[in-house]
Design goal:
Arc Repressor Mutant, subunit A, nine-stranded mixed β-sheet, alpha/beta, single chain, three-stranded antiparallel β-sheet, 3 domains, Rossmann fold
Length: 366
Amino acid sequence: MDLAHIWFWFLNIPGLGPTLRTTLLEEFKHPLHVFKADRKDLSPFLKDRVLDTLVRTRDPEKIMKKYRELQEKGIHFLHREMNEFPERLRHIEDPPMGLYLIGKLPDPARPILAMVGSRRSTVYGREMASRYAGELGARGVQIISGLALGVDAASHRGALDAGAYTMGIVGGGIDTTYPRENYNLYRQLYQRGGVLSEYGPGIPNRSGLFPRRNRLISGISDGVFVLEAGCKSGSLITASHGLLQGKDIFALPGRITDPLSAGCNYLISQGAVLVQTPRDILEVLGDRGYGLADHEKIKITSSKRMLDGPEENVIYNLIDGKSPVSFERLLLLSGYEVTKLTSILLKLEMGGWIFQPRQDLYLHKL
């Protein structure tokens, strides 16, 4: 057996959870020493039932067989002594000892952004997630999210539609598809991006696993972008992990009366970067040293991009750079329907042409 087999065995002993594994590593320094330890040396740290299981599983042939079965399923096992193990995750608080991967890891030489938000997102939240992921992905930003419904799924799809890399980090076992509605999305990430988990096959999704998962989402990223979140949202946990890890925190502002904007507005009040266009994120990521010359070219290209068509020009020309124009006023002046005007305004915001100084008021982006 090699080190991969030893770590794989150590992380898959039934009944041996994170706390006990940490205790054993502190005492024995390495899983190989645990594997070779006498029962009497292990007994002070483990109850008889767990100790019996540990001793029973120390069978090299069975360990190697299970490891081969893992590989045959297209699952890669990464332990923290491997060169391929994500460097950023070695240094976070409570770093993972091992990871399971289908697909490929993000390129550490390119910017990585976590995009998170509510599972019960609004149409607006999903639209913004998809558009921002697409705009940023097309400019080389790799998108990380949690493969949940709502903002997560929209972020992954936006990146995929733009031909960009995206990875989902899941809370259960690497072979679980949760929620089932995202089955096709999982398949696309297997083939065109990656799916990562701290847990091996057969581990069911449980609510207690998701907060631990969130530290990985922020840990592997340069920054965390929260698009819609309530005051007690798991997305705020991800942002909190990001703050502790020294990551940039971004937030999309929303109505003060909207419960799903309360978390984002709170983050902004605490110093998160207020995001009005993709350039607000690109500027910060560019300052981290990701090819500043290309970054400057991105800003010029984005700001000088031509409007898509005559309808966009009509609305753009009804807005100026000094006095905000209300949504209701634009409806009256343009004669467009609500859904049509909303769509045009979203395009203009995403393109960096206009912004909202307050909800439903519009100004030119200078």
